[in-house]
Specification:
A hairpin with a 2-residue loop joins strand 1 and strand 2. With about 300 residues, this protein is mainly α. The chain has helices at about 15-35, 50-55, 60-90, 95-105, 110-120, 130-135, 145-175, 180-190, 190-220, 225-230, 240-250, 255-285, and strands spanning about 35-40, 45.
Length: about 300
């Protein structure tokens, strides 16, 4: 009997080493620091669960959590349908689809700390292109003191930056659909909605689930853009969990910052796990569906 050779597992060692250095070890360190009152590494005083108790009994924490969750929900509700529609349209463009995908993906290479600066320049009433348009239309964009304007600007900025990710992943799903499926649907006289419901959506759901998870995690922890636009204002209406965390870090409150980061990590992991369970159930239900002839 031939023995199985498992030496290929050693090829994972570089990746596991890198993951430990950038993920596991910092996570363990943050968990450890969350139980101490830190002045320096050598001056750490045990406080137990004091920081956790202060955070989870604070109304500010739950308000920030609600705002972060609302922003993620709003961002995903815009980016996912638009990304799917754009990917579906692009998949039928023939040779021009590569150019369209490149243009959509271009904002992905823009650094986070440059996005707010770019958009502030665009909406400047004196020098910005959009500022000229707003002035011409008589519209006053008051994102410093109007919460609706601030939220709208943040969602537009986030969508501009990350729509390409959703589009590309959805396009990958559309590209994997055999042409024979569409020919069979045409013979059956299926409508465009039926084609998307029974053919396209089941095929792109796996790629789409990756986009949803990545976008949720990133939008839920939005920090740089929100701080640069209005530093959590007006009146803390854009103070998200990540901004509270950055305030603790900037104030050298490393113990509370570590506890806050651990709570944020647990929230993200829990929501991602629940979302993954929902995606798996949706996939199973889609596989159990068999379209009947003439379903249009």
């Amino acid at each position: 009997m031939k023995r199985q050779n498992n030496h290929a597992w050693f090829l994972l060692l570089p990746a596991l080493t890198l993951l430990s250095l950038v993920g596991i070890i910092p996570l363990i360190a943050a968990f450890n620091y969350s139980f101490f009152d830190l002045f320096t590494i050598r001056e750490a005083y045990w406080v137990g669960d004091q920081w956790y108790s202060q955070i989870i009994t604070s109304s500010r924490f739950f308000s920030s959590f609600g705002r972060s969750l609302a922003f993620s929900t709003l961002a995903l509700s815009v980016q996912v349908p638009v990304g799917i529609a754009l990917a579906r349209m692009t998949s039928r463009m023939g040779p021009f689809r590569i150019f369209v995908l490149m243009m959509v993906a271009l904002p992905l290479v823009v650094p986070w700390n440059m996005i707010a600066m770019m958009w502030q320049s665009l909406i400047d009433l004196r020098t910005g292109l959009l500022g000229y348009v707003f002035t011409y239309l008589g519209f006053e964009l008051d994102y410093k003191f109007n919460a609706i304007h601030t939220w709208t600007l943040l969602v537009i900025m986030d969508t501009w930056h990350w729509l390409g990710l959703v589009t590309i992943l959805a396009y990958a799903g559309f590209s994997g659909i055999p042409e024979a499926y569409y020919r069979a649907a045409a013979i059956d006289g299926a409508s465009g909605f039926a084609i998307f419901r029974y053919i396209e959506f089941p095929k792109i759901i796996n790629a789409l689930s990756i986009a949803l998870l990545l976008r949720f995690v990133d939008s839920f922890m939005i920090n740089t853009e929100a701080f640069a636009i209005n530093a959590g204002g007006p009146h803390n209406t854009t103070t998200f969990l990540a901004l509270d965390l950055s305030e603790d870090i900037k104030g050298f409150n490393y113990g509370p910052a570590a506890a806050r980061s651990m709570l944020s990590f647990l929230i993200v992991v829990t929501v991602a796990w629940l979302f993954r369970l929902w995606i798996d159930r949706q996939t199973e239900s889609q596989l159990s569906i068999r379209p009947s002839r003439g379903s249009a």
